[in-house]
Amino acid sequence: MERSLVLIKPNAVQRDLVGTIISRLERRGLKIVATKMLQMDESLAHRHYAIHQGKAFFNELVTFITASPIIAAIFEGENAVDIIRRTMGETDPAKANPGTIRGDFAIDIGRNLIHGSDSVENAVKEIKLFFSNGEIFEYSREADKWIG
Ligand code: IDP
Ligand code: MG
After folding, report:
1. How many other C-beta atoms are found inside a 10 Å radius of the C-beta of residue 54?
2. What does the mean pLDDT of the chain come to?
3. Longest Cα–Cα distance in the chain
4. Other C-beta atoms lying within 10 Å of the C-beta of residue 26
5. Which residues are catalytic?
6. 106 φ, ψ to 5°?
7. What pLDDT is recorded for position 130?
8. For residue 143, how far is its CA from the centre of ligand 1 (angstroms)?
């Protein structure tokens, strides 16, 4: 069972697309095991997007992601990382397939609505940036119930 970090970015919150985005991931078959609303500060943005430091779009990216509140969530499921990336669509919404979140609701690469971890390894790191263990709930698929 994999976990992935999802961020519903500032423009998606502003456009009232939170429910739509969460719904698409839930209906895909993924389980939400943690969520919160927060405004990222510069320090968190730098840590979350550390891999992009030095790139031409980095400053614009940090300004955008810290501008207003986001929703952070952890989704769980088999192959959750890959399934979420496919459900999101390509980074550039102009190239994302219709039927994907980015392909249906976005057009600008800097305003592509949603973040999803790109590997299991990065998911583990990113989840730690946004959630403490006590904020994550455990769900048993076999028993079809929440634990603890
Ligand atoms: P991802 O979100 O699909 O994983 P990354 O390559 O990790 O894409 O880039 C992180 C974020 O940086 C993207 O979601 C996008 O918002 C922004 N970004 C990536 N490339 C560009 C670009 O060429 N111009 C402007 N923003 C970009
Ligand atoms: Mg990425």
Report:
1. 6
2. 97
3. 49
4. 12
5. 115
6. -140, 165
7. 98
8. 39
Reply yes or no on whether the pLDDT at 48 is more than 90.
Answer: yes
Ligand 1 centroid to Cα of residue 31, in Å, is 25
Render pLDDT for 17-46 as a digit per residue (tens, 0 to 9): 999 999 999 999 999 999 999 999 999 999
Say if ligand 1 is within 6 A of residue 110 CB.
yes
Using left for φ > 0, alpha for ψ between -120 and 50, and beta otherwise, residue 6 falls in beta
Q: Helices H, strands E: what count in the chain?
A: 7, 6
DSSP H or E stretch at residue 126? helix 120-130
Dihedral pair phi/psi, residue 36, rounded to 5°:
-160, 160
Whether the pLDDT of residue 83 is over 80: the answer is yes
pLDDT at 148 over 90: no
DSSP state of 95: T
Residues whose CB is less than 8 angstroms from the CB of residue 91 and which lie 6 or more positions away in sequence, other chains included: 102, 109, 112
Residue-wise pLDDT for 102-129, tens only, equals 999 999 999 999 999 999 999 999 999 9
| Residue 4 Cβ < 6 Å to ligand 1 | no
- Tell me the pTM: 0.97
Q: Check if 92 has its Cβ closer than 6 Å to any atom of ligand 1.
A: no
